[in-house]
Write a structure and sequence with these properties.
This protein is mainly alpha-helical. It has helices at 2-8, 12-21, 27-56, 58-82, 86-112, 119-143, 152-183, 195-227, 231-243, 245-256, 260-285, 299-316, 323-342; strands at residues 115-116, 320-321. The longest helix is centred in the middle third of the chain and has 33 residues, at 195-227.
Length: 343
């Protein structure tokens, strides 16, 4: 019955798209439609990733899920740059890093219970997040001394930082894929989808998620005014969560099926990709929109990203997943949301 409801709810995706671009529905209705439409999209991305992981193993499966799931995040960020919303872009990137490490990882551990983790892979990726935060802190710290966060000099400093981050992303990704290629052998069951079908479903679902996410972000300003939240809080919490709904839902669904290794790979890999790939890519591509985006994050953003990575490293270091650790991560995320609200 649950699967039938999920399949039927895919009708919400064209309904949201038609409502936005054809029928010009009011923004509150669009927000509700888009939010509901993301639920079945997250499920199908998780399902397709789980099927592909039968061939590739959990490490590469997590990489695939994070890669497809982060495509909407990149698209949303570039749309926001074009609309001259740099604070929203940086806030959503910060929120993505923090929510994936704490909220998604914690929810996956709670859903999956006690289990094994690939500690070696996760440690490398968390080290990459620490390195990204350290590099991002350079232009950010300069902006804390006063003046605009959008100074052209800060953007010029952000360019070499972005290049170094992208090089680091390639190094970490290649190393991890080699680790998993050497240690994992996919032995799919007879009922599993063919690998090309899994990849095709992931691609189509990602495109649909990008459209729906754009609709949701388009209606968030109206929603924020209605509930009395400021732009930064909306970006760092709401935009980040809905922009990563695919990873959020997919990781929890996979964890509930007992595949904690894949679920934790999805959460950490997604966070690493946002910090080390999506963030510098948005910075370098922002000139296409005519507005260079400096990597000048607020102090609370830099501190919470570093703290989230530290919490996650403490949890995964021994290679075991425990339900109580998931609750600790969720609690840490709630505290950081409070810090964003008060900042």
């Amino acid at each position: 019955m649950a699967h039938r409801i999920l399949w039927a709810s895919f009708a919400l995706t064209p309904a949201a798209i038609l409502g936005r671009f054809v029928f010009d529905l009011d923004e509150t209705t669009l927000f509700v439609l888009a939010a509901l439409a993301l639920i079945p999209l997250a499920w199908i991305i998780g399902e397709a990733t789980d099927q592909a992981a039968e061939y590739t193993g959990p490490g590469v499966g997590g990489f695939l899920n994070a890669s497809f799931g982060n495509a909407p995040e990149l698209i949303i960020a570039l749309f926001a740059v074009a609309d001259n919303l740099p604070g929203v872009v940086r806030g959503s990137l910060t929120g993505s890093v923090v929510s994936n490490i704490l909220l998604v990882l914690g929810a996956a551990m709670i859903a999956g219970g006690d289990g094994r983790l690939d500690a070696r892979s996760l440690r490398w990726q968390l080290f990459a997040v620490f390195g990204a935060v350290a590099l991002i802190a350079l232009p950010s710290a300069i902006s804390w001394n006063g003046g605009s966060h959008e100074r052209h000099s800060l953007y010029l400093l952000s360019i070499p930082v972005s290049v170094v981050l992208l090089i680091g992303y390639l190094v970490v990704t290649i190393r991890n894929l080699r680790i998993h290629r050497a240690t994992e052998r996919g032995e799919p069951s007879p009922e599993v989808w063919p690998l090309p079908v899994s990849i095709a479903v992931l691609a189509v679902a990602t495109v649909a998620t990008a459209f729906v996410s754009e609709i949701l972000v388009h209606s968030l300003d109206h929603f924020g005014k209605a509930v009395g939240l400021d732009e930064f809080f909306i970006a760092v919490v709401i935009v980040a969560i809905v922009g990563n709904a695919a990873e959020h839902g997919g990781a929890v669904v996979i964890a509930r099926r007992g595949n904690t290794t894949l679920a934790t790979e999805i959460a950490i890999t997604s966070s690493m990709q946002v910090a080390v790939f999506v963030t510098p890519a948005v910075c370098l591509l922002s000139w296409l929109a005519g507005r260079g985006l400096p990597l000048s994050f607020r102090a609370v953003e830099v501190v919470t990203m570093a703290a989230a990575a530290a919490f996650a490293a403490w949890v995964v270091w021994d290679g075991r997943s425990r339900r109580w650790e998931g609750f600790v991560l969720i609690g840490a995320y709630v505290l950081m949301v409070v810090a964003y609200y008060l900042s």
